[in-house]
Amino acid sequence: MNVRAELRTSFSIQHIQSAFFFARQCKVIEEAHDGSYDAPSIANCRAYATGAVFAAVAFLEATAGELFVDASEPDGGLLKGQSPEVCHTFAEAWSKSLSKKSAALPKLEQALELAGTPKICAASRFNTEGRTYDDAKLVIELRNKLVHYEPACLPAELADRNPTAPRYEFAERLRGRFPESRLMGAGNPLFQKILGHGCAKWAAESTLALADDFYSRMGIKPRYNHVRPELVG
User: Fold this and answer.
1) Is the pLDDT of residue 127 over 70?
2) Confidence (pTM)
3) pLDDT value of residue 47
4) CA 199 to chain centre
């Protein structure tokens, strides 16, 4: 008789732990800042902030993917409290790659739809008018802006005076969402002050909040609950 042991890693947990770790590293750098211009510290802080944004979005992607894969597990994984019909629907959607190709938010939306959760507005099972959804969506947009970066030139003295310029409109949408980087002086344009501790912490907390909302609507315990005490930015 052949016996095969299988092990599946829930990398969503690693991703959210990474996001908060990167945020804490940003905090250490900013708290040690003495007010002088320090190029290495700025570069390091931006690197950690960028990592936090990337990891936060990866967390949402993995959260959705892992739940779909749970449906094919013998015990149903986190879906074990759902009906066999729901589990079958999840497994079928995943096997046909209908869900694998979706982005994070549509994938989570599809999971809620397949589970039969009631809609709270015409187009969504999330409260798309709420701050939780809006923040998570902005984190994903920021990740996309960083991954698919398009360089552009604008005179520095005009950057903050013309916030509706196409290249800087997105930065304006982030204004007030989180504290600006302490490493950059007040005279610097907004887009140079985004990638800091405030942004990193916001990205991690916003995606975690959306995941909490998702699990609550699904009626299941979050996969990452056991590490929640360490999820501090």
Assistant:
1) yes
2) 0.86
3) 96
4) 12
Q: Is the dihedral of CA 198, 201, 206, 209 positive or negative?
A: negative
Write the CA distances from 129 to 6, 120, 126, 147, 153, integer angstroms: 42, 10, 9, 26, 34
Burial class (CB in 10 A: 0-12, 13-18, 19+), 124: middle
Do 23 and 198 meet the contact criterion of CB atoms below 8 Å apart?
no
- Most confident range (mean pLDDT) of 63-67, 80-84, 132-136, 198-202 is 198-202
Q: For residue 17, what are its two tokens?
A: 């732990």
Alpha-carbon Rg for the chain, nearest whole angstrom, is: 20
Structure tokens at 154: 């604008």
Which two tokens mark 145? 């802006």
Q: Using CA atoms, how far apart are residues 13 and 223, in angstroms rounded to an integer?
A: 8
Looking at the chain, the whole-number percentage of residues with pLDDT higher than 70 is 82
Q: Is the pLDDT of residue 5 over 50?
A: no
CA distance 88 to 115: 11
pLDDT at 171 over 90: no
Q: Does residue 180 sit in helix, strand or coil?
A: coil
**Contact of 79 with 220, CB cutoff 8 Å:** yes
What residues does each domain of the chain span? Answer: 11-220
Task: Give Cα separations from 182 to 41, 56, 164, 192 (angstroms).
Answer: 11, 22, 24, 11
Q: Are the CB atoms for 207 and 56 separated by under 8 Å?
A: yes
